[in-house]
Here is the input.
Amino acid sequence: MTFSADRKPMIECRQVHKHYGDYHALRGIDLTIRAGEFFSLLGPSGCGKTTLLRTIAGFEEISSGVVLVDGKDMSNVPANVRPTNMVFQSYAIFPHLTVAQNVGFGLRRDPRSSAEKARAVEEALEMVGLKGYGKRAAHALSGGQRQRVALARALILKPKVLLLDEPLSALDRKMREQMQVELIKLQRQVGITFVLVTHDQEEALVMSDRIAVMFEGEIAQLAHPEALYARPASRRVADFIGLMNFLPVSITGESDAAVTADVPGFGRVDIPMSNVSRANPGDSGPSAGFRPEAMTLLGVNAPPAERETGGVIDEVVYYGDMTYYDVRLDGSDRPVRISMRNVFGRDIADVGTRTRVSWAPGSLVLFR
Amino acid sequence: MATRNAAEAAQGLRLVAPPLTYAVVMLAIPLLTILAYSFFKDGYLTVIREFTLENYRAVWADPIFHKIMTRSLLVAALVTLVTVLLAFPVAYFLSFVVPPSHKALWIFLITIPFWTSYLIRVFLWKVILGYNGVVNSGLKSIGLIDQPLSFLLYNTSSIVMTLAHAYAPFAILPIYVALEKIDRSLLEAGRDLGESRAMTFWRVTLPLAMPGVLAAVLIVFIPTIGDYVTPTLIGGGKIPMIANMIQSQMLDQDNRPMGSALAVTAMLIVAVLSVLFLLLNRRFLRVRQ
Amino acid sequence: MKGGGLRLYAMLYLLFLYAPILLLPVFAFNNATVIAFPLKGFTTEWFSQMVGNAALRKALTNSLVIAVSASILATCLGVFAARASTRFSFPGKGPAMGLIMLPLVLPEIIVAMSLLVVLLAVGVQLSVFTVIIGHTLICMPYAVAILSTAFSSLDKSLEEAAHDLGETKFSAFRLVILPLVMPGIISALLMCFTISLDEFIIAFFLAGNEPTLPTYIFSQLRFPKSIPVIMALGTILVLMSILLLATAEYFRRRGVARTGTQDTGGFL
Here is the structure.
């Protein structure tokens, strides 16, 4: 799911600032989103991601900086003229209109005949899987259907950019997962640049070509999902994306290529420079982080692994497809969480038993 | 978002300008004029623009003012007490017993009399309570009394009765709204924690409904104090309240400064009482937050 | 049936509320000049007297002119105020809205007297027009209250969505906001009309020599022989009020159904 960087830029933000009175909502955003990209703005609530999306849409005026869409400066372009369309968090389906009237709302100034417009509406409805729903009253739709109407209503105008403001947050889990897949397919089908705002890191990882993680009005990291997950740029990003174990370490040496550190339970490890990131300002010292799936519990009879250590199982949490083990590694007093996919024929280990643990090279990230 | 930007504020101000201008010109300026008049001297048929506190001194020294103000306060307090006490069970019934689909209908039924000619309703009470009125003639025709009961009309209790009837919906609605807001699981929690139904009502429902009761009290008390029609019709002009006194000073005796001082004094008294009342009940209000 | 005692009490309470109104038609059709039991027999005499009464017709015309003008003015001003208060925040919003809503808690006698003093001081002739001024003032808070409910049940993003789909701010208002709050506007108009039609104090002090229905009724109450006609008139007025309010309620409910929100019921 990598994305080629040779496409032309569709959205460019240069030093975008936004103030609400004393509150500094966006602090110098520099960002390029490419044509046809599925791009996500990810962050906790209040990080400025929705504000950034709304400045692209034209609902918020920026305090300083430039926003370009398809190479054109958007400074004095109002929202109704911008080549962007939005799917609102609440979907904003007009309750006094039918589904077809909602979808065709933006075609009012379209010079085409009403028959052609009706056909366009029908096609748009079909595209989102609502064929034949045109005559229904909009306020009688379910959450998932509303969302599809909102999508059809925006896409019928063939915008250069589709902006999606937390479009899945109001749906239940099953529906959400289904819509994630549908949105990806839809985006590939229409080829339009999608910009998604979400606070759900899993959703961002599943759907995006690239993700910008935002904290307090700044972009903390902009990367492909795999890079973001495997090599978070800071401990704060690592905390926000998925689960990561952190162990305090002492740094013993440093070369151009790697940093050498004593990691409790792992011994002395060389961590390549590409895996060295920033610690949080408040951290007491450097720490090493690794994902739960970077370690494997070895069976008693398994052959010795290249990198192996041992520990005692503190806690077992069974999830059906997965089991999480909290293991106290030898030489460390803090349990780490290790995830194992459950396969037939492998027993779940018991609490209190000793276990052998192997770990993958390159899975450790140093935060200093 | 903490604050909107300046453009939004400007748009809001532009929008609010027409109604606000209207309210300033037709309400704020007249009220300020009254306030100014109350410090002016009265010349015969004119107002002398000279600062004086004489009007207020006269108002406070006037035994008739004391009597009428006391009566107005007493009547308003009684009306409020009666209205709120009678209204609470109805609001409770509306909120807890009436199924949701029928609530709008019940509220509609309760508000309808409120919107039908106040004057006629007040007058009807005179008809009902009068010397040859409905009650007396009815009682006489079924042989319960020989002579009409004269104590029914032209007294304070008939004024209270009439006003309590007129302001009933004012009391029901705020209490109903407060009761509606109560999370029903709180009541179940009260029962679950071992309280009887009555004690749950006393310890959970009532304190949570208190903001509504307070609103009801103020919403009934303030306008009843200033009522003009009821004392005129039901009191037969013999039991004037403060509104009648203001009107008489302003128009019949054409003493604008004195009438203004009366109006300002009455408003001040009501305002001070309302604030005192709210302060006394702070601990109930805190429940809402 | 749940809550038997309470239900009985509520019924009795309703009876208490309606008792005077129920007496209206009884005596309007009673063939006697004295309002007393026992009833004397059926007549439509009082209604025909009412129809033939020129002074009453004059009062009715005045009242209708006042009620129509005041309800339109108050609702228009109310739309501005409700929109400003639900959609925007601006400096001085609290005091501004407070002043606009103040007539709700101010005794009408105070409003009437202060307005009267100023109008006389400025030298304005008391007329139907001055009553319209006063009625607009006291109807406005009711219009604002009804319209604020209508405006605040609107999702702000509806307007943004229309804007996003190519409409200007103005056409977005016309195509989306206005149709959605139209039931509220109609219900505010009807409510203001009803209030103005029934209002006595301000009409009493600000109308000069022009009669309105309530002031006409008030002037007739002194004459016992006029009272049966007043009963007939009251019957008509009550029926009209109920009709207007039922229409207002119908539109309010339709507004609720249209936006698909929960019905919380009731005015105020």
In short: The first strand of chain B starts at residue 41 and ends at 43.
